[in-house]
Each structure stands twice: as C-alpha cells, then as structure tokens.
Amino acid sequence: MTRKLLIIAILVLVGLLAWLLFWTPTGVDLDQDRPRHGTLDLASPPQGGDFVLESVDGPVALADLRGKVVLIYFGYTWCPDICPTNLVLIAGALKTLTPDESERVQVLFVSVDPERDSAERLAEYSGYFHPEILGLTGTPEQIAAVAKLYGAAYRRTDLADSAMGYVVDHSAYSHLIDTQGKLVRNLDHATPSAEIVAAIRTLLESSPSTENQSEP
Q: SS3 helix, strand, coil % of the chain, rounded to 5?
C-alpha cells in the first residue's frame, strides 16, 4: 500500500511539473504567486443523461458510447492545479487497465471554458496525460446544459493582475457512467488511481462485453 501511495504521489508531481513546463500561458511570472482556486460543491444532485459535444474529430454523442464504461470529468486546460491532479490520477487508472478492458472504457474531459478551449487545444492537452482521454467542448449554452445534467458547478473569476485574465472555479468530481448510459457513481476530487480502476472494473464485470452481447 505504501508503494502504491508513493507511485500516485510521483504521478501527481510529474503531472503538475509537466503542466508548469508546457501549459503556462505566455507572460505569466512563475516567481509570483500562481493563481489558485478551490473546488466547488456540486450545483445540484447529478442526474446524468445523454448529450452531444464537439471533439477535434467531430461530434461525440454519449449515446454512441453504449457498451463502454464512461468517465466524465469537467475542467479546462488553463486550470492551474485541480485538473492536472485529477487527470494524472485518471491517466494512471487507464494505464492499469488491460488492453481488453481499455477497449470498453472511454474518458471524456468536458471543458467549462469554451472561450479559450478549442477542440484542438483540448486534444493536445488531454492527449498529453493519456491518448484515450477525449477532450470535448461546445457553445457556452451547450456546456451549461451538460453541466446541469451532472450537477457540475463552475464560475469565472477575473484576475486583474494576471496574464491569464481569469480562472474558472469548478467542481471536480469524476462521473462514472455504466455500459447502458446510466450515471452510477460520482468520484471525489483526487480519488486515487487504484480506486478509479476498482470502480471501473466493477462496472465492466457487471456488464457482458460487446462480443458476448452479440452472441445468440
């Protein structure tokens, strides 16, 4: 257990360091206090539901992911602390899955900052953590509608003395969807990779694979 915690801590530190090196907006002075923000509580009890948002390769519909366990995380690419932590842990979970399990899992990173997060930027950012994390965006109205389904809270906070311009405070839950498209669990901020893997495997084991479903 101690060894696992050490590995998780290293992954988190590596992810944060990578963000500092590659994703610091031009002009931000790292010698000054970096803008930080805390997590928000959920805006409302998550209900779940289908939606369609845009990826770098075109529209992605949750309904088209039936047969897969889906993990949905709301965040944004300019996030100074919360998102890198969670994405490193989610990526660690994905790396633990077997190839067969990975084929039945999809992670969706939904941006709550559509003003700055283009589909291309999301693809590059999420791909850094893991190639199977799919970044999604949409119009502000579309993002608000999806966030409402999952109780996600977010609010813009302007930064008068920062080159970033603003941060987006947001809730930091990971929402687990079963193979039938039903929301079944909300994982807390910074849930360890091992716990994420266990939750995913529980859902995979409770549902037959696509191959088995197609057999007479």
A: 40, 20, 40
